[in-house]
Amino acid sequence: MVEKIFSTCRHALGSETWGRVLTAMDGDLTIQSFPDMLASLAESMELPGYIADLACLEWILHKKTAVDNPIRRIQTVTVNPTLTMVPVPWKNLTAFIRSNATGAAPLNEPAHVIVWRHPESKDLHFREARDIDLLALKLIIEQIDPKEAARLGKVTPGDIQTAIDQAISLGFLLSPGSRIRRAKPPAGEIDPSLASFLSAEIFSMVMLTLTRDNLAQVLPLAKLLEDRADAFTFNRLSTVGKGATLLMPEKAAFESFLREYDAAAAKNPKMGLKDNLINIIRQEKSAALFGGCTGHGCGAAFNFLGLLPDGEVHACRKFPSLVGNITKHRLYDIYNSDLTERYRAGSRACRSCRLNPVCRGCLAIAFSLGLDIFKEKGPFCFASQQFSGA
Ligand code: SF4
Q: Are residues 243 and 235 in contact, defined by beta-carbon separation less than 8 angstroms?
């Protein structure tokens, strides 16, 4: 049970140190006291400075998983009653938990972690609070007039509204309006206007962004669209820009989903394979590999670039990856620069992997999780050491 609840601590310490810690605690060990006992041993056993705070956070997440607070109907925008805010002295603890201790180590800088249950999916969500999250909470808790807040904060009323809208879409603020939905078509049918578009003689491809909240809907949707759309696939979420309002799936749920997706795609010819990590499953099954995201694995700065209206050229459209400016340099020179070559080469951690030519993970996701994209591989990789070499 201790291993399960504090699994990130266990992975961060490694099995040998973990064993020594449990031996040191011996008869005194209870699950509730584990974070405090870990704190008391940290100095003498030279454990990482973040370990006790990591254990506290894992304990809070565990307790939240066990409790199911009912969410009442509300009349005005209000804070989700399941929300807990935890001040922590370390940044990136949440990314470290999501990576199961394989990502970048937490940084010794204060942060806040917010934990809440989504009002519709009822799933437990957590993330490091961003400034925009804290602003939305402050506005609602202190009932600050949005116009006054915009004036004091020297931002536009639109910025204030965006903060509140994002919090509502994430579910840690509740809105009476957020319960209002368009009438849903009957189960197994699709919206009539979409149906008429799909029946027209126009090539139609559905590509959705995969998030924690729509993970369970993707395969039923693929089935529903099998005879209607010409192609169907998904793209993983990068939590940059507007994507920061959404949540990535948990690693284990994502891996199971990929396995189910690959199996379903074998029977449904409309389902396309795009996510590089599906190649791990195909390699395990000795099935034919496919070209990954853009034909040769990650296509950043290889077979695509992002060009912005101000001339900035980025290696990938999904995260800030500036490689030059078209108003100052020729595209040919930008493409052939050393910096662009670094993006093409991807993470050093992927170099020895057999799947490198058709994978190299997703740099945008590694960036979203605060990793060094040129050194560390994304935490969603579940390749065995046997063929990843890492
Ligand atoms: S190690 Fe890198 S290249 Fe290999 S499967 Fe994992 S993400 Fe892909």
A: no
pLDDT higher at 380 or 151 = 380
Task: Determine how β-strand 205-210 pairs with β-strand 173-174.
Answer: unpaired
Ligand 1 atom with the smallest distance to the CA of 378 is 7
Name the residue with tokens 């800088």: 109
Read off the pLDDT band of 179 (50, 70, 90).
Answer: very low
- Residue 353 alpha carbon, nearest atom of ligand 1: 4
Regarding the beta carbon of 381 and ligand 1, being less than 6 Å apart is answered yes
177 contacts: CB under 8 Å, gap ≥ 6? none
In this prediction, residue 323 carries a pLDDT of: 94
**How many Å apart are CA 80 and CA 388, to the nearest integer?**
42
| Burial (0-12, 13-18, 19+ Cβ within 10 Å), 202 | exposed
Alpha-carbon distance values, 193 to 183, 188, 218, 296 (Å): 13, 15, 20, 36
Residues 219-257: tens digit of each pLDDT = 999 999 998 899 999 999 998 877 777 888 988 999 999
Could you tell me the pTM of the whole model?
A: 0.62
CB of 361 shorter than 6 A to ligand 1: yes
Residue 250 burial (CB count, 10 A):
17
pLDDT at position 180: 37
Band of the pLDDT at 178, cuts 50, 70, 90?
A: very low
- What pLDDT is stored for residue 253 in this prediction? 93
Name the residue with the closest Cα to ligand 1, atom 6. 381
Residue closest via CA to ligand 1's atom 2 equals 350
Write out the two tokens for 235.
């793209």
Cα of 172 vs centre of ligand 1, distance in Å, is 34
